[in-house]
Amino acid sequence: MPRRLPWLFPLFLVCASLHAQQQPVFPQVTSYNLAKQKVTLPGGMAGKTDLLLISFAPEQHHDIESWLEAAQAIQHSNFQFHYYQLPVEGRENFVFRWWETSSLRSDQNDPESWPWIVPLFVERHTFMAALNIPNEKQVVILLVDRDGHILWRASGPMTPDKRASLMAAASAH
Predict the structure, then answer these.
(1) Cα dist. 165→82, 138, 139, 162 in Å?
(2) Strands 150-155 and 140-145, how do they pair?
(3) Residue 84 is inside which H or E element, if any?
(4) What is the pTM of this model?
(5) What is the pLDDT of residues 34-83, one digit of tens each?
(6) Domain total in the chain
(7) Which domain holds residue 166?
(8) N or C: which terminus of the chain carries fewer CB neighbours within 10 A?
(9) How many whole angstroms separate alpha carbon 18 and alpha carbon 13?
(10) Angle, to 10 degrees, between the axis of helix 160-172 and the axis of helix 61-77?
């Protein structure tokens, strides 16, 4: 019969505790929103807490839209909350960034939404690693404070369970 190693359990608890304390923080990123205003995230966000709707491909727009009703409902009831759509692109030259931003602006026919859509042109893998995002297959939704601390997270399209969880997290902060 194999010998049990009782000392591993306390070591496991210490490692689990350290992992829990090392939550990722949204990295500082400066970009321009669709209204052509410079925005520095997370410190320059409008709310005390903000919902970041992160997408990696144009095909994910439908998944982002599934979150908008809940985000708008929270924003209407909490004036210290705002949401941002953050389409993530790789670092590109100025011409590509201009073309991509112009395309996004023409797709969004409501200029009122332009200040809240901030395309991020970043090193994708570094950005994703900083936020513990394993791949680009799903949208990622983060509730963050002004320091970038992640208070809640989900991925993929909205579901009733995710909506309830988001509403609870938003009302707690």
Answers:
(1) 17, 18, 17, 5
(2) antiparallel
(3) strand 81-89
(4) 0.82
(5) 889 999 999 999 899 999 999 999 899 999 999 999 999 999 999 899 99
(6) 1
(7) 26-172
(8) N
(9) 9
(10) 40
